[in-house]
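ARCHIVE CARD
SHELF: 3
SLOT: left
DATA:
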Amino acid sequence: MNEASLLHNYLVVGSLLFGIGLIGFLVRRNMIVMFLCAEMMLQGISLSAIAFGRYHNDWGGQMLVIFIIAVAAAEAGIALALILMVFHKSGTLDMAFWQDLREGGHPAFIDHRVPEEQAEDRVWPTLTPAGIEPEVNEDEQLHRSKV
């Protein structure tokens, strides 16, 4: 395989990583998923920089990637601290909570395209604790006794 086709393959994979990360960052509202998508975009850029460095026989791409990894590690520490702070304050990782942390006097951004969840819409199934026989309707008892 010649160097030009190898470069092309690396650039395709790098652009796919960047594109998937960008779509995930723009679509998702969970802060952890958004952080992981930003990291995926950085990895796509890193792969492209390394590919160009190899193609041109230059160490510049590899050195740039080392700096990108160092910045990503610092970003990971700061982002994790912010995520934990917001989770402890709100109990949720939804990006809409950041609206409450804005400066005074700024109006809140209202997202009209995403329907708001209502608490009464959520019905979660529960399991009976161990050792306690579950309650059964009379109709179900009659049906079971006939079968």
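SLOT: right
DATA:
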Amino acid sequence: MRSVLTPRLALLTTAHFTVDAYSSFFSPLLPLLAIRLHLNLAMVGTLVALASLSSAFSQPLFGLVADRVRRPWLIGFGPLVAAVFMSAVGLAPSYAALVAILMVGGLGISWFHPQSAVLATEASERRSLAMSVFITGGTLGGSLGPLISVAVVGWVGLEHSWVVMFPGLVLAAVLIAALVRLHGTGREPGGAGTSSGGGSPPLRALKPVLRPLALLYLAVVARSAVSYGFMTFLPIHLHRLGYPVAFGGTALTAYLSMGALGGFLGGWLAEKFGGRRVVVFSFLGAIPFFLAFLVLPTVPGLVCLVIGSFIVQGSLPVNIVLGQELAPRHSSTISSLLMGAAWGVGALLVAPIGVLADASGIVAALTALTGFLLVGLACALALPSPREQARFAEMTHA
């Protein structure tokens, strides 16, 4: 059996690490940006929601394009745009400028994800584990982004945050040079592709799988709302409790890093026990730990939150592979729906949570967020069995 970590998968995972590091770069800086730009919690929540419009909701469009025009090297422009704009948050002179910077940077993030996810699963015969490696790279990047931003801003100041753009520019050049040889194909010989050469089949082929796809979509939305919400408000919550910005960045990095490790483990467990079981357990097992965070003192509560993140993020790569297996000929489109549009809806829910935080306090808002785990659990329990999953895949091939 071929090695899981092929050179192509290693490159794509490195790129995913870099892109997602830029996507979370601004999160621990929110306390400083809120003070400098005079933002309340509703404005902070709305900022995250608006930023998601470009980084998430444009992904289905890019996924459709990727299913029709196989030019894998074009994904190299994703880290380039993300690096230039996401690193410039410290230059924003106003709330509107900050929103604009994040939205343009989000387009780079969005551009990269759909086709890179398909290329990652095609890079190895062990699709679930390959996707876990790819997703773990991105999640680790997202988890280290806050630590990088705190370190850089502590070193050069908020107004010089742009210095972190250069690694992304180098990575973009390497990615384009490496993938330009795949011009017009984008898949390895014999790989489990979506469609070849002549474009993708009509989207009406997805009609037989709408119910399971909708359940997967809602499960991802629920998990994403929890992830984005805690990522947004945890640093502010800790800062208001008297902890320094660096402590909030470290706590956020621990929360996201353990989530990344959970995602890797989830892919391995899915190969042994099945994806549906992993998704169900990820929600069921995480609920008590998130609830413990809400009632325990700060330090033990953070320990529980980190464990909860480890468990709930175990379903992250599994959801995407389950979706791709429902309709293999629409892999890029499915990936964009579950990685982009679903994450985007989850991020949009942060805006009303911010309003709730202003009205009733951050703890009340985080309690409401935890309730989304119950929604995700209900959707996971209703997912089709492996036998039904195989039948759906046959229907979309017909």
